Write the structure tokens for this entry.
Amino acid sequence: MLKIGNVKLDTPVLQASLSGYSDRAMRTMARRFGCQLTFSGVMLDKSVCYKPFLQKVCNKIRDEEHPIGGQLLGTEVKTMAQAAGNLYEAGYDIVDLNFACPAPKVLRRGRGGAMLGNPRQIIEIFRAVRNAVKCPVMMKLRIGVDDSEGAREDFLRICSDAAAEGVDALIVHGRTTNQYFKGKADWNVVTELKKQYPQLIILGSGDLFEAQDIVSKLKTSGVDGAAIARGAIGKPWIFRQIKELLEGHLPVEKIYQPDIKEQGQIILEHFSLLTELYEPRKCVWYFRKFLSHYGRSHSEPGKVRRELVTAKDEAALIDAIKKWYGV
């Protein structure tokens, strides 16, 4: 249902790169619920050119994780090409170039979404990266630096040039860089882009939180797939829900929804995976940002989230999960 270069997926969704979230534990949980392509957290090109860093990252990739994508953030042509080559040699199946990140600390260095104001540099980076690897190369974009006419022209030029150069896929988030995550993502721009470039693989991004809405956006926009980021935090079962809706065998009210006890089991499994990556004290602290999202699916979200995120150690956290989820 979705083909990105030589990578074929049965369901047209992937778990996008999420800085500070999409580690092996989150990727494993997504795969458990049917997501066939996941991305590691965004990596700075200079870091990936540093061998000790690369070895540390790649030691966390297991055979069962393939296909896996790596996302790069940077501005320099040669450095981005070298980093992409390193990712490919390390076993990554797809390289994604991030020209969309709106984080202030990224923009201050001219990276991510700030690059949208320099279409020529973006295409030069893409060409160099494509020549450095033998795997699919994607690009993630926002619809402009801001909502000015010039910014929209730059965005469309990037898309046009990327299509002509043979990019394997574009992930397009329907907000400008300056919007950050405010307001609603404009899927009309994504829809029109797909109409203009019907042969180009385009994945929509932005405001993808509920399975029914995601499937609706896929059908009405005509895009080839969806890149789910924030919507997968604390809700890995969203991928199974999407698959069931796309298959059309079940009415909306009958699609998979874990009951309270199963939610607790999922949370415990996720935490167990984290203990393989981080020392105990960090695990509890790090997991809080996931627990805040997991708690939203509980029938008493306020109380649950408050108790889970204030647990001071592993024992207290496990007790709180058992108390509220009955596991």
Observations:
- The longest helix spans residues 149-165.
- The CA atoms of residues 29 and 311 lie 22 Å apart.
- The chain has a mean pLDDT of 95.
- The longest strand covers residues 68-73.
